[in-house]
Amino acid sequence: MAVNELPDELLESVFLRLASPICLVRAASTCRRWCRVVADAGFLRLYRSRNALTIGNYIATDTGIFANWSRPSPSCRVSSLAFVPAAAAVTSSKRFSLDFVPEPGNTSWVLADSHGGLVLLVPERYYWGNASSVSIVVCEPWTRRYRTVIPPLENKHVACLDASLLGAGTGSEKKNNNNNHVAGVSNFTVLLILYTFGSGAKTACIFSTFTGADEELRLRLTRSMDLGDLIRPKGVPRRQRHFDADAMHFAGRAGGSLYWGTIYGVVFALDESTGELSPLTLPKCCASEQPRFYYRQWNLRAVGDDAGGGRLVRVVQHSDLEVLTPLHAGGGREWTVEKTLRLPELITRGLPELEDYSRLVERLTGVKILEVMGRSVVLTPPEGSGMWPFSVDLETMELEHVYDWGDELVQKWVFPVKPPWPPALPLHATTDVH
Fold first, then answer.
1. Are strands 109-115 and 412-417 parallel, antiparallel or unpaired?
2. I need a surface site. Which of 141, 183, 277, 342 has the fewest CB within 10 A?
3. Which domain holds residue 397?
4. pTM
5. Which CATH number is 41's domain given?
6. Which residues form the F-box domain (predicted)?
C-alpha cells in the first residue's frame, strides 16, 4: 500500500504516537493531506490529551507549616522560585529563569498563575494593598518575551485576592491560520478577584487585550461579576471568627474551568469558554452535614487538564478521599461521587513498609492535600508515623513516597509550563505524497 493510500484514521493513529510537537510540525510540513489531518481541531485536542506536553514546573515552597493556604503565597516571589524540568524534557532550568522581566519598583514580582506557555506576574504590593495603577506582566518563558499592562480599575480602593490567566473562548485569543485559538503575550485574558475596602465586596473582573490608537497593548474590562451570594448564600450566617475577605480559596484549574471553595460550604466554577460563574451542587460529605462543610485548599482540589474532563477531590471524614465528577457527561452544575478512597487501607496495601505502623494508620486523621501534580494528589502522612508525604494516582490507585518534597509538611505551589500550543503549523504544504 502506498503512503497516499493510507486512510486518515490510520494516519491519525500514527501521528498520535509522535512524542514531540516538533515532530508533529515536521509531519504537517510534508504534504497538504498530512497538514490537513494534523491541523484538524479534534485531532489536536486528542493529541494534547494523550501526550504530556509539560516542559517543567515552577515550584515555590511555603514558609510556614499549614500557615498560608491562600494563593498566591509570599513564597511565590519570583526570586525564590525553582524551575524543575519534566523528566522527558530536554531543556535546562537556566533557560526558564524569569530574569528577563524588569523588576517592579519598591516591591517584588509574585508568580500568580501559569497557563499553557504563559506566566502571569503580579506585584506583591497588589495583594492586600491599593491596587490602583499597578502594572502586571504576562510573559512567555519559552521565547523570553513579555508585555506589561495596567488593568483599568474604576474603584481605586481595592486589593487583589487572586489573579489567573484564562484560556480560549473568553474573547481575547486570536486565531491562527488553522482557525484555532492561540493565546500569546499580545493576546490574552486575565481574571482578577478584587476586594473592596470598606464595603467588603468581592468582584470577579475579566480583562482582555486590545491595541489602542497609540498602538500600545492595553486591557479592557469585558465582564464584572459580584461574588457575594456565590461565596455566602443568602440566609447563611457569617462566620464571626474569620476575615470575610479570606472566605474563598482557589481549588485549581481542570477541564476548561477554574474552581473555588468557600468556608460556607459552597463550591463554584468559572467556565473559561464562556466566562460564566456558577455554583456546583455536590453530594453531602456525610448524612449529618451540620454545620456546612468548611472548604479550604487542604481538603478540596481540582484534578485534570484542559484537554480532558475535570474532577474534584476532597477529604471527608478526616481520612477518606472522594473523587467527584459531573453527573452528566457534558458537564453541568450537579456532581456525583465517582469513587471513595479509604486512605488507611490504601496506605497499608500500597506501602508495605508501614506494617509496623498499621495501628497508627488505622487511626489516620487530619489528612491534608498538599498539592495536585498531574493526575496524582500529594497528601500528608499519618501523624506521628515519621513518613514522608505520599501521592495517590487517581487512575491506578498506586501510592508513592514523595521524597523530593522534603520532610516538612508544607504547602508547595506548582506552576506547570507548556510549549506554545497549538504548534505553528504551515499554512499549506507545497507537495503531495506519491
1. unpaired
2. 342
3. 64-69+242-410
4. 0.82
5. 1.20.1280
6. 1-50
